């Protein structure tokens, strides 16, 4: 075997493993960091029982229902003020009657008549206010969880079973798989796992964006797919290419093996082409 062929056979798999490993470690390790989720993402995490709820914002700390207005305290009457005339109502003549706007809510409801329209109106206002405050509290929820739990949110939103389990499988595959690819240990296993991870990433991120840009009336789906891809913004296009390249490289490791410069060759003593 010529030197050039031997160099290609040994160094190309090594360089590919190092590039893949570094890329997946860089992308996988931040997913284990704890971050804050808000809004709909926080509500989904609470539904899944993931993370720790740390606050509910200003709306959540406020009272959910308004308190009834209390009657105004009667003002003290000067001693030298003449007493009320005899025509005043029965009872303590020295206590002034509360003003029209200071009457207790219960009095207002009582004066609405036997039909109870005032009580129902008051109850409706309380229920409506409570619903608004509850909705505001839901939006302001804050949940602390690992960044990779965002994968569980994405899988849950599309109805995927066991979203948290698959999220953790993806996180471990990227971080641990990337590290073991660099040293070449169980390379074919991690190559297959990372290839599957890239298929999932493309199917749940890039593909829906392309489908939104596709013409539903197009008869040729291939041309419609290409047109939808061209309609994406450049950043989304580069993300799709990034996923495709990582898939191809991972698949090549799975099919072609880690090469001679690997722990797999040292431990398992495969053929030179493994």
Secondary structure layout plus pairing:
Elements: H1 3-28, E1 34-38, H2 39-48, E2 52-55, H3 57-61, H4 105-110, H5 117-139, E3 142-146, H6 149-157, H7 163-183, H8 187-213, H9 221-230, H10 234-256, H11 263-268
Helix pairs in contact: 1-7, 1-10, 6-7, 7-8, 8-9, 8-10
Poorly predicted runs: 58-73, 81-91, 105-115, 130-139
What is the CA-CA span between the terminal residues?
16 Å
Strand order of the largest sheet: 1-3-2
The topology string of helices and strands comes to HEHEHHHEHHHHHH
Helix content: 55-70%
Integer-rounded radius of gyration: 35 Å
Tally of individual domains? 2
Shape: flat
What's the mean pLDDT score? 77
How many strands, what sense, and barrel or not for the largest sheet?
3 strands, antiparallel
Structural class: mainly alpha
Number of strands: 3
Proportion in β-strands: 5-15%
Q: Number of helix segments? A: 11
Structure explained in plain terms:
The chain is 61% helix and 5% strand. It has a three-stranded antiparallel β-sheet with strand order 1-3-2. The chain has helices at residues 3-28, 39-48, 57-61, 105-110, 117-139, 149-157, 163-183, 187-213, 221-230, 234-256, 263-268; strands at 34-38, 52-55, 142-146. With 274 residues, the chain is mainly α. It is flat, with a radius of gyration of 35 Å.
Supply database-style keywords:
mainly alpha; 2 domains; flat
Summary of the model, kept short:
With 274 residues, the chain is mainly alpha-helical.
């Amino acid at each position: 075997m010529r030197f050039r062929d031997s160099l290609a056979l040994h160094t190309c798999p090594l360089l590919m493993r190092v590039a893949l490993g570094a890329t997946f470690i860089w992308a996988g390790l931040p997913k284990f960091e704890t971050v804050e989720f808000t809004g709909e993402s926080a509500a989904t995490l609470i539904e899944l029982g993931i993370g720790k709820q740390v606050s509910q914002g200003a709306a959540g700390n406020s009272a959910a229902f308004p308190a009834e207005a209390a009657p105004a305290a009667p003002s003290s009457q000067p001693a030298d003020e003449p007493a009320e005339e005899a025509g005043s109502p029965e009872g303590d003549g020295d206590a002034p009657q509360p003003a029209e706007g200071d009457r207790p809510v219960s009095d207002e409801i009582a004066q609405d008549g036997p039909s109870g329209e005032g009580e129902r109106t008051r109850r409706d206002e309380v229920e409506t206010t409570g619903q608004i405050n509850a909705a505001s509290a839901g939006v302001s929820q804050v949940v602390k969880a690992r960044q990779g739990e965002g994968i569980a949110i994405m899988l849950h939103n599309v109805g995927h079973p066991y979203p948290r389990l698959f999220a953790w499988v993806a996180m471990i595959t990227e971080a641990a798989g990337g590290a073991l690819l660099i040293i070449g240990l169980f390379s074919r296993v991690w190559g297959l796992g990372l290839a599957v991870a890239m298929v999932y990433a493309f199917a749940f991120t890039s593909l829906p964006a392309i489908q939104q840009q596709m013409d539903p009336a197009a008869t040729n789906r291939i041309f419609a797919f290409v047109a939808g891809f061209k309609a994406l913004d450049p950043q989304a296009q580069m993300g799709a290419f990034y996923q495709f390249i990582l898939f191809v490289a991972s698949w090549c490791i799975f099919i072609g093996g880690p090469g001679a410069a690997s722990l797999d060759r040292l431990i398992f003593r495969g053929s030179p082409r493994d």
